[in-house]
Amino acid sequence: MTSIARAAFDSLPYPTVIVVGGGFGGLEVVQRLNGKPFKVLLIDKQNHHCFQPLLYQVATASLSADSIAHPFRRTIAPMDNVVFRMASVTGIDPAGKHVHTDRGSFGYDILVLATGSTTNFFGNAAIEAEAMQLKSIAQALDIRSDFLQDFEAALYSDDEAAQRKQLNFVIVGGGPTGVELAGAMAEIRKTILKHEYREVLSERMQIHLIDSGDRVLKSFHPENSARAKRYLEEMGVHIRLGARVMSFDGERIALNDGSTMDTNTLMWAAGVKGSSVKGLGAALDERSQRFKVDAFNRVEGQRDIYAVGDIALMTTDTAWPTGHPQVAPAAIQQGQHLVKNLLFAKAGEEMKPFTYFDKGSMATIGRFKAVVEVRSLRFGGLIAWLGWIFVHVMSLVSFRNRIMVLMNWAWKFMSWKNTIRLIIRPYVRRTHP
Ligand SMILES: Cc1cc2nc3c(=O)[nH]c(=O)nc-3n(C[C@H](O)[C@H](O)[C@H](O)COP(=O)(O)OP(=O)(O)OC[C@H]3O[C@@H](n4cnc5c(N)ncnc54)[C@H](O)[C@@H]3O)c2cc1C
């Protein structure tokens, strides 16, 4: 077994809690266990927490990567009962109470799984091999490099069809990520491409948003779906509903109606599945790849293993019989509630069942446009956009992140002269150099 080897930590007379994943749910658990009678080991394959709701802004060169990420070591530095190890968890041994990682095994008394979710290609390996995805900083930087490289390459192309293909950007999935990406790409056409790549005709850049459903933002009220669609169309985004992408070979997309589209870039935002780990057998729901948990976030069939956030499938909350939405507030609330329950259990008191408080939903569609709904209240436009900015800035994990994001946005919206467009690490396509 791998030892933590930090004397002050090892000698604490407390049970060991391992938290796997320092996203919204896991980090909330760690922060709330700070100073409590537990030894906490946070394990994550990354060395930083990532604020995923703003990933699309990194991908579209509005924000720098470090303004939406925060190193775990900085967060836990003041926490005497918390240590961090960067490692990828490969499996769980519930009988031996061990977590296996690519760097060794760690023993636990209590295990909290908060591994989040990953992109779901619904078994289409060919699309997975070629499409771009947006779940991490590295992937956001790939998208950013890719479209900047396409712009640069377009300048060398005399052939109109080849140039159009290079400047054709297809986004699959009309949920908040797809809608926000499409809106931001439309802004890029209007600003960066038009003013900084003057030799290229900016109308040759086309943005397509494809969804198999009958409206964008399906999780929102139809009124807000219609509003978002109208905003996108006003910005020149082509929306195709009721269409399904069947294949993509890095050059051409084929749709279920037999039509094709020539493009080098397909961004896949059509679904997620749990980022599961091996070892918990039947507790894993095959379809969603989430771990089934009871009302106390305890993994089905286990005594000391809990799951929170996107990876947890809780069907006991009567308002959410098919599980909670995979969003940040659900992960945070479950993390908060689990720590309360762990403290109740330690004090010999009964745990309390979790219920999710839905604060509402919002999505932004370019400059000055957003849609918001809070219970029966639904609105769009500038007020919604300002609300979106306020909520996102206040939710960032550190004060430095908040200041950086605010300054970047203020400069960008006043001048449109932001400069976060360095191709630092060129994106190399896996099968098409
Ligand atoms: C592009 C995008 C936009 C989004 N926009 C919004 C939004 O506007 N509003 C909203 O509420 N939600 C949004 N979400 C969803 C929200 O980000 C998730 O619901 C939330 O991050 C879930 O939190 P979590 O703690 O469960 O997992 P995550 O925050 O995903 O964290 C999981 C952590 O586990 C680590 N990990 C995973 N597997 C392993 C392993 N095997 N070993 C070690 N570490 C591992 C990961 O590195 C990561 O740090 C968005 C998501 C994306 C991708």
Compact summary:
Helices cover 32% and strands 23% of the residues. With 433 residues, the chain is α/β, with parallel strands linked by helices.
Strand content: 15-25%
CATH class annotation of the largest domain: Alpha Beta
Mean pLDDT: 94
Proper CATH architecture of the largest domain: 3-Layer(bba) Sandwich
In the predicted model, the low-confidence regions spanning at least 5 consecutive residues are none
SSE-based structural type = alpha/beta
- Roughly what percent helix? 25-40%
Whole-number tally of structural domains? 2
User: Which fold does the CATH topology of the largest domain refer to?
Assistant: FAD/NAD(P)-binding domain
Q: Give the overall shape.
A: globular
Distance between the termini: 43 Å
- Each distinct ligand: flavin-adenine dinucleotide
Number of helices: 12
Q: Total strand count, please?
A: 25
Written overview of the protein:
This protein is α/β, with parallel strands linked by helices and 433 residues long. The protein has two domains: 7-45 and 87-119 and 273-346, FAD/NAD(P)-binding domain, CATH 3.50.50; 125-270 and 367-415, FAD/NAD(P)-binding domain, CATH 3.50.50.100. The chain has helices spanning 7-10, 24-33, 55-59, 72-76, 125-130, 137-154, 160-166, 176-196, 222-234, 328-346, 381-395, 399-415, and strands spanning 16-20, 39-44, 48-50, 69-71, 82-86, 89-93, 98-101, 104-107, 110-113, 117-119, 168-172, 206-211, 237-241, 245-248, 252-255, 260-262, 265-268, 272-274, 284-285, 290-293, 305-307, 312-314, 361-364, 370-374, 377-380. The strands form eight sheets. A five-stranded parallel β-sheet has the order 5-2-1-9-21. Strand 12 (206-211), helix 9 and strand 13 (237-241) form a beta-alpha-beta unit. Helix 2 packs parallel to helix 10 and helix 6 (137-154) packs antiparallel against helix 7 (160-166). The longest helix has 21 residues, at 176-196. The structure holds flavin-adenine dinucleotide. The site of flavin-adenine dinucleotide has 34 residues, from helix 2, strand 2, helix 3, helix 8 and helix 10. Flavin-adenine dinucleotide (FAD) is lined by residues 20-26, 43-46, 52-53, 55-56, 88-89, 114-116, 134-135, 176-177, 275, 277, 309-311, 326-329, 331.
